[in-house]
Protein: Lipid carrier--UDP-N-acetylgalactosaminyltransferase
Amino acid sequence: MKRAFDFAAAAAGLAALALPLAVVAVLVRATSPGPAVYWSQRVGRGNRLFPMPKFRTMRIDTPEVATHLLDDPHRWLTPVGPFLRKTSLDELPQLWSVLVGHMSLVGPRPALFNQDDLVAARTAAGVHALRPGVTGWAQINGRDELAIPEKVALDADYLARASFLFDLKILLGTVAPVVLGRGVRA
Structure:
């Protein structure tokens, strides 16, 4: 049921958001050199790597590490990057990953390929068995502000409580942090 819901919602979302997606792509290309969409290697279900798309919010010469590991993340942002991150518009291309089955609408956020500490902690907690999500329990309880142990504890709690109704609660709970731009770094 979860996969069918994910597929239908992602297909509907991509169709309904086609024009806004095109506008954001044009804005990214018009304000900085490089492609509009950035594909990063992320850790998916079973710790397998998959390519995850996002609208590019950072310059093309940015080191490929988690934003919080950059010395001065703001210096790497594109002119529209802060707005896209605050509004989470940069995340919309991930609907493609949901459509093709690499991601779910709800699950733990996919780690970067080089976030070994996060991947190891999630594996120890059994969270690696889950399909990563566009949003998740940790996302609505702190987003980027959470330390790895807190994030993994929330991911493990999601694993223990996973259900269609819990997913709906998380989807509804995603609205306020996104609209208010809470918990987003750089």
